[in-house]
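Notebook B, p. 112. Complex prediction, attempt 2.
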Amino acid sequence: NAGVTQTPKFQVLKTGQSMTLQCAQDMNHNSMYWYRQDPGMGLRLIYYSASEGTTDKGEVPNGYNVSRLNKREFSLRLESAAPSQTSVYFCASAFAGELFFGEGSRLTVL
Amino acid sequence: KQEVTQIPAALSVPEGENLVLNCSFTDSAIYNLQWFRQDPGKGLTSLLLIQSSQREQTSGRLNASLDKSSGRSTLYIAASQPGDSATYLCAVPNDYKLSFGAGTTVTVRA
């Protein structure tokens, strides 16, 4: 049982480049989330999707877009990466109020 | 606005000692509280989910209590082992998302 799978695990980008972080869950959960974790800032919600076909902004959505491709997959796109987006990104899915996290994607923007 | 505080920020104990980790939250109108463990460079692993109707939840050496009226939860880890060294985070629902504490980093010395 893979749970929540994120790719890639590591990525280095130059300022202005774009990329997509992929997330897939095999637990048939309706809700999915993207968080970023930064030292001293804790975990902050970027976007979430309460169900297939819906997405909503979280606390820090600027500079990001998301797609809920189907019930399993929820991707996060950086259109024009900035150094401030250097962070560890976590995808999560939820069922009955309990969150399950992926292993994270470590992104560095130079 | 829900704010979550975890004290202490760091804790170092000798192997075998019991651990007591504290979590406080400002809005007592929660329906559950979740404790997570995070190892360095890894994702968050769910330890315990305690519903608002419960006063405590147990899993092996872990026991979490919840006192909604005082806005507090405590995670007890009995007979600590070096493998318990990690950061422990608590999280409570806040509207459409979870609000996380900053975590308590635990070091268990052999």
